[in-house]
Amino acid sequence: MQHSRSGGAAGGVATTETDNLIASDKVEGTPVYDTGGERLGSVYNLMIEKRSGKVRYAVMSFGGFLGIGERYHPLPWEKLTYDPALGGYVVDIPHERLQAAPSFARDETPWRDPLYGESLHGYYGLPFPRI
Amino acid sequence: MQHSRSGGAAGGVATTETDNLIASDKVEGTPVYDTGGERLGSVYNLMIEKRSGKVRYAVMSFGGFLGIGERYHPLPWEKLTYDPALGGYVVDIPHERLQAAPSFARDETPWRDPLYGESLHGYYGLPFPRI
């Protein structure tokens, strides 16, 4: 993920963000936009690789946008770019790719499948990271 | 951080944890114990390096334990080990080291100091990671 300096942050932000670091509970709930500035949804949570401590996926909640309904779309972390002007993340993924992307309902357990992560990276055309 | 297989997880856990991945909002609030199994507090949030996507610190809330009061103690992620039997993280740090460790109150902004992270790693005897 790329981040720009947020500059002129309000008081509440000061304890949870620096130029280099950002707090997990600040990322959760942050809005996500397409490259045209249209709001797609927000970050639901982050999936972190236990051993390396690396964030692998930002799980997006699209909240019904694009007719997707209340489903969760895990995006490889590298696909998100922070835009300080928008105050949210931008994903450069066409709507139809997002609509057809791997996603799950609240009661589904896709992470149980050991190949799920690999399929996500594959879908977004990214190499699957080997630790 | 080290994690062990949690095994026999309840339904609610299934969507937020695998053998390799764990959800950020599951880590937040997870209890933290000393090596004797005494509860010290809980994880308040995680500080993530924006560019690399790596979790650098788990910020502990000690909630008054050890006479520390309501302060936040950032611990390098490597210092936490997950214990499935306890259902929480264990830190192998003597109480007096924790009591004297770098910490901040809710209204303080330590992360603004570009050398803060380096001082944290130094305090806990760990090399500061260069990206």
TrEMBL record, chains A, B:
Pfam families according to UniProt: PRC
Domain PRC-barrel: 22-97
InterPro entries per the UniProt record, alphabetical: PRC-brl_dom (IPR027275), PRC_barrel-like_sf (IPR011033)
SUPFAM superfamilies in the cross-refs: PRC-barrel domain
Name the UniProt record assigns to this protein: Photosystem reaction center subunit H
